Amino acid sequence: SQQGEEDPQALSIQEGENATMNCSYKTSINNLQWYRQNSGRGLVHLILIRSNEREKHSGRLRVTLDTSKKSSSLLITASRAADTASYFCATGGGFAGNTGKLIFGQGTTLQVKP
Amino acid sequence: SQTIHQWPATLVQPVGSPLSLECTVEGTSNPNLYWYRQAAGRGLQLLFYSVGIGQISSEVPQNLSASRPQDRQFILSSKKLLLSDSGFYLCAWRVTGRGAEAFFGQGTRLTVV
Prior knowledge:
Order of helices and strands of chain B: EEEEEEEEEEE
Structural class of chain B: mainly beta
Distance between the termini of chain B: 38 Å
Largest sheet of chain A: 6 strands, mixed
Strand content of chain A: over 45%
Helix content of chain B: under 10%
Largest sheet of chain B: 7 strands, mixed
Mean pLDDT of chain A: 89
Radius of gyration of chain B: 13 Å
Number of helices of chain B: 0
Number of strands of chain B: 11
Oligomer: heterodimer
Low-confidence stretches of chain B: none
Number of strands of chain A: 11
Order of helices and strands of chain A: EEEEEEEEEEE
Strand content of chain B: over 45%
Mean pLDDT of chain B: 91
Number of helices of chain A: 0
Largest interface: A-B, 29 and 31 residues
Low-confidence stretches of chain A: none
Radius of gyration of chain A: 14 Å
């Protein structure tokens, strides 16, 4: 079963607007990651937030994590047409002993209209 | 620098034929290796992962198998392909340890006809 579930499944906005995507997960984690995928390509890592962090920024990206609600959000500010892609959250692995698993959610497809 | 090679980029195979997809990593040692499958417009389904040579964990019972004959080589195989094996296959690696990001290959688009 999938560990992460994103919503919305699809999001269409105008250039310049902000885009918010949400991710919920089921089990305890020690970090959560967000990835981006352009159509037909491999995934690219965007940002990682640890379980003891509540918010993290990277350029136009802002990630929040609420471990009590088992949820995370990715905010892209001042969106550009080039931000059009699918975005995935991922959890799992990294504990001492290295279980190795890395589980992805179903993703949010973002379309930014010029 | 580390790189990951996955090939071929596209593959069309008849039902019942064998499959071998190869993934190799350069520039790192003892990585965790992963095979994912992605259906059109969907998320990534974890198929197999490996934390070391000869160590394979299978996530989903299916018509596929994986092997790790060398530290930086991960192979996805099938003896007889099914139509349902069609999809986009992605190989990924990450270093062992806490919170490491994963690096993905460019994927193989497999169409079983």
